[in-house]
Every structure is written in structure tokens, then in C-alpha cells.
Write a structure and sequence with these properties.
This protein is α/β, with parallel strands linked by helices. It contains eleven helices and 17 strands. The longest helix is centred in the first third of the chain and has 18 residues.
Length: about 375
């Protein structure tokens, strides 16, 4: 399979062509030019050097995020345009996993890519290699450098750090980390399309394609304007006086809604954890779980229809997970309709993995339920 791979997630612009996992050509520029100026000419140059027409490409791979908002949009638009024109599939690759692939074969250490996300935060993910295979220890997320170093100290494993966050936070890492620390060499520390393409070739073997129409970049973090709106929303414990609003949101969100009495009964149970999202004086969303014996089950999560696609559901879910972890929960489960793509995407981005299927679980449509699980205690 011939793969055209792109990475414009940071300052680096990189294009590569691979045949399966073999790199045929790579063109990488680390210079302050707009990716909209460089990406298409770089693609033309690489294909031209190979004497290859773009129609010979079997799939287009790209660093799907996180990263620079502008860079990700340019990369996504370019990849989607090519895939649509050629009628080829897309293979999005998490940016931090592609960075980790630069160190393929480096067994023993925890691999910690760090992309500078500003505001003293980084985009990162934790992984290691089992010989040549990349093992994800924790999926990519945005975190403060202090929280990341605390987590790495708690894990107690030697770490190798790479990415454009290294020069920004190198001194802080050296000061705060109490585990053995090493840094990737400069030629392996930044984004490379070849690494995107190698990982994409493994994804292709597993059938992990998406259509160009369905692909959206994984920004991980909201834009500044969205963050400012979200900061005005308070997540707090659900109260009985919230139930009229909760019931209204429940009925507009689910075909088999819970009754007000069901919520009322759950609030009285000691093992219940139910949260409400409030803006000004209005309840605009909620999430609930039942916790017992180190395990948890997410029972419901919903946002008022007029307030969706603003990150509220994700904030609710993350607060629910953080609170559950503080209460000693080690793993948490949920069920979701197999065709509920927005919910599935939210849960995947929050670190849930499919672990089973319940046939015809939803009686109104005979739709299967996908059982998903997330480990809250991170281990090597």
C-alpha cells in the first residue's frame, strides 16, 4: 500500500511517501512559513522526485491532532481535499503517537512527547515499546507541566522526552523530575511525516480508515474563545431542586428517558455520583455514575440541545472521572448505542476503549450496546 503522509501539527511541515512501512521519500522543513504556502508544493516536490502521480496513492495519512489550531486545519483541509478528489481513504494518526514513533525500538523507557500548548500546558501522551510495537500507556491529553511531572514521579519509570516542548520546559523537567531523564536527539525530537506514515501503515493493516467527509482534527483543547465560554460553566453536585431541568434535558436527549423519580432515588444512594453543569442560574447538563468496590459505571450524561458542541459534555465527563478517581475508583465502564457517533467520539477521546458488545440491548430499536472501559489508575 502506498501512503502519502502529512504532518503540519506544529512549526514543522513534513511530507512523506511510503510503500507499506518502507519510506520512499520525505521532505521536512522547520522554518517559520505558513503551512498553506509550503504543504502543497512539498507534496508536488516529493511525488515529482519519485516520478509518481498522486493518483497512485492508496491512502492519505495525517497527523490528526493535537497541535497548532491553524496547522491542523491546513493539514486536515489538504488531506481531505486530496482524499475526496482521489476517492481514497484517510488514516488520521494521533500527533503524540507519531512523535513517539520517532523512537521506535527504544525499549525500557517511558516515551513522553511534549508539545508546547502555551499557558504552562503541554499536549502529551505516555507510551513504551514492546520491541517494535508502540504500546499506549495513556492516550494523548492536555496537562500542566507540574501535573505531568507529578504523574511521572508517581509512576517511577525512567523517561525519554521529545517534542517542541523540550526547549521550553527542559530546565523545569530537570528540576522537578525524580526519575531518570533523557532527551531524544535533535534529529528525532520533532514531527516527521515518515513516522506518521509508518504508524498509519500499521493502522491500515487493522482496517483503521475514515472517510474524508468524516474526519475532523482532534484539537484536544478548545480555542481561547471557547475556553472562556466554558470557564463560565460550573460543575457541581446535583441537587433535588435541579430535577425539573434535568428531567427536561433527559427527555430531549434519550428515547428511553429516566423519570424524575429515578433521579431522585439515585441522589439518595451513597454510592451515587451525580453532577450538574450550571451557567448563570440555568442547569444545562448533567452526568452520573455509580461507584462501588473500586469500579464505576457511568449511568447518564447529557447536555441541553441548545448548548451542545461547546465542550460541556467533555467537561462534565472529565469532572466525573476525576471525582471518581479521587474516591478510589480504579476502572469505570459505560454503555453506548453502536450508532451514537458523537457519544462514541467523546468517550474515545476521554480514554475509553471498547471491551464488549451487548446484542439488541436497546429495546426501542434493537440496537447493540458497545461496552467501554477506562482505567483510572495509570500503570506502566
Amino acid at each position: 500500500m502506498k501512503i502519502l503522509a502529512l504532518d503540519s501539527s506544529g512549526l514543522v511541515a513534513s511530507v512523506a511517501v511510503l510503500n507499506d512501512a518502507a519510506v520512499l521519500a520525505e521532505y521536512t522543513v522547520n522554518f517559520r512559513k505558513t503551512h498553506s504556502e509550503t504543504l502543497l508544493p512539498m507534496i508536488d516536490a516529493v511525488l515529482g522526485m519519485l516520478g509518481m502521480d498522486v493518483s497512485e496513492v492508496d491512502a492519505v495519512a495525517l497527523a490528526g491532532g493535537p497541535g497548532s489550531f491553524t496547522g491542523l486545519r491546513i493539514g486536515s483541509a489538504t488531506a481531505k481535499g486530496l482524499a475526496l478528489a482521489l476517492d481514497k481513504p484517510l488514516i488520521p494518526v494521533p500527533t503524540v503517537d507519531a512523535l513517539a514513533m520517532n523512537l521506535q525500538g527504544a525499549t525500557g523507557n517511558l516515551i513522553v512527547p511534549m508539545m508546547d500548548a502555551r499557558r504552562n500546558q503541554v499536549y502529551t501522551g505516555l507510551s513504551r515499546f514492546d520491541e517494535e510495537r508502540l504500546i499506549t500507556v495513556r492516550k494523548q491529553w492536555a496537562v500542566s507541566v507540574e501535573e505531568l511531572t507529578d504523574l511521572l514521579n508517581d509512576m517511577g519509570k525512567p523517561v525519554t522526552v521529545l517534542g517542541d516542548g523540550v526547549p521550553v520546559y527542559r530546565e523545569l523537567l530537570g528540576k522537578n523530575l525524580r526519575v531518570p531523564l533523557s532527551f531524544a536527539p535533535p534529529h528525532l525530537s520533532l514531527q516527521r511525516a515518515a513516522a506518521v506514515g509508518v504508524l498509519a501503515s500499521y493502522y491500515a493493516e487493522e482496517g483503521r480508515f475514515v472517510s474524508a467527509a468524516d474526519h475532523v482534527p482532534d484539537y484536544l483543547r478548545l480555542s481561547q474563545a471557547e475556553r472562556e465560554r466554558l470557564e463560565k460553566i460550573r460543575i457541581r453536585p446535583m441537587k433535588e431542586e435541579d430535577l425539573p431541568s434535568i428531567e427536561r434535558i433527559e427527555r430531549e436527549s434519550f428515547s428511553i428517558p429516566w423519570s424524575r423519580q429515578s433521579f431522585c432515588d439515585m441522589l439518595k444512594r451513597s454510592e451515587s455520583l451525580f453532577l450538574a453543569a450550571q451557567r448563570d442560574d440555568a442547569v444545562i447538563g448533567y452526568a452520573g455514575a455509580v461507584l462501588a468496590g473500586g469500579q464505576g459505571d457511568v449511568t447518564n450524561i447529557a447536555v441541553a440541545a441548545a448548548e451542545r458542541e461547546q465542550g460541556i459534555g467533555r467537561k462534565l465527563l472529565q469532572t466525573l472521572l476525576d471525582t471518581a478517581e479521587k474516591k478510589g475508583t480504579e476502572e469505570i465502564f459505560l454503555e453506548v448505542r453502536e450508532r451514537n457517533e458523537p457519544a462514541l467520539a467523546l468517550y474515545r477521546k476521554s480514554g475509553f476503549e471498547p471491551v464488549g458488545r451487548r446484542k439488541q440491548y436497546y429495546t426501542d430499536t434493537n440496537e447493540d450496546a458497545i461496552l467501554m472501559k477506562k482505567l483510572l489508575k495509570v500503570g506502566f
